Structure formats: structure tokens, C-alpha cells
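Schema walkthrough. Field components (list of strings):
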Amino acid sequence: GENVEQHPSTLSVQEGDSAVIKCTYSDSASNYFPWYKQELGKRPQLIIDIRSNVGEKKDQRIAVTLNKTAKHFSLHITETQPEDSAVYFCAAILGAGGFKTIFGAGTRLFVKA
Amino acid sequence: NAGVMQNPRHLVRRRGQEARLRCSPMKGHSHVYWYRQLPEEGLKFMVYLQKENIIDESGMPKERFSAEFPKEGPSILRIQQVVRGDSAAYFCASSPTGTVTDTQYFGPGTRLTVL
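Field assembly_structure (string):
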């Protein structure tokens, strides 16, 4: 069945360092991969996304890479700041008429000042 | 432009009661998705609806759970005869079209506690 695995479950970095979160997906029909940030007690918010015809996308300190052959995609946050502390979720959305969004289990990122 | 709205934000029910969760999508959005988030876990897809139609309910438990999105009014997720295991945060999201790459905008969630 469809599955998205996300690692690590917890990540602690020093302010200014980089953080990398990795996900793998199982369904090769997936063609859209959003990343969400969720602060404690709040709603998930889209921070960046990537489509299957693109290998990399960057938005200021955030970048996402996609390897369709290996079914891997990753989130990279550079120059981390304390306000980056949150839970990050990757997701894969089935294409070809499917509308189901499968989320990873989340990565709790702590950025220490 | 108001975002996705959900109410109530917090709901307490005793075992066996019914829970009704409401979601008003963003203005101009006709597609609604419901997700459940257990404590310390990710979001699990439950159901995807367009106005008056259920498109994909493959993530919905077969019993006690139902969802609707009428022509007028909010989308409603109904849980009958709640059990303690139903305690979770329930998020809805909306998008303007049903395109796979459409951004889904999330509501603030309803936190259901079953005593």
C-alpha cells in the first residue's frame, strides 16, 4: 500500500547549522511532494513543494530535492534559526486521478540558540 | 479573505456520544479534505469531498464515521458512538480545484477529547 517514511524523527541542531530531513515513498505514481511545518498546537502550513518533473527547488533558506528513481526526497534548511523549531512533515500525493495525500510521521526539529 | 475555519476548536464528549466537526473552506474553494492526527503522530488522510460528492473515503473507518459537504454550508465530519481511541486533532484542508498539485490550506483543527 501507499507509505511515506520520514527520518529522523527528532533532529537537534545548533543555530546557524543546516538541517536535513529525508523521506521515501512507495507509490511510483506519486508526482507531487509538499512539505509542511507545524508549530505546537497550530495548523500545518505549506513551506515548499516539488513536482515530479523537477529535481530541486529552492526558496531562500529552504530547499527540496527529489530523486524519482530512488523514490527519495529531502528537505534542507540552511542557517537554521530558533524559530525554525517545529515539526516538519513530508507528504506524497498520488497522481493519475488520485487525491490521497500520504504524510510522513514527522520530524521534530529543535534549533538551539 | 478568511482562511479555512473549523469549529468547535475543542470538543469534549463522553463515550457513546456523537461528535460533529465543522469545516468552512476558504472562499472560492470547493474541495475539502479531512485528516486525523493522533498525539505525536503525523496526519492521516480520511476523506476527500467536493460539493455534494464524496470523491475518496478510503481513509475513513467503515463504521461510526461519516462526512458530507452539502451544497450550502460547511463540510461536516460526524463520529457516532465515540470511543476513547477517537481522541485526536481533526484537521480539514481546502483547495480551489481538484488538481493534484493544488496547495491544500489547513484549518486550525478541532481537538476532540473523549472521556
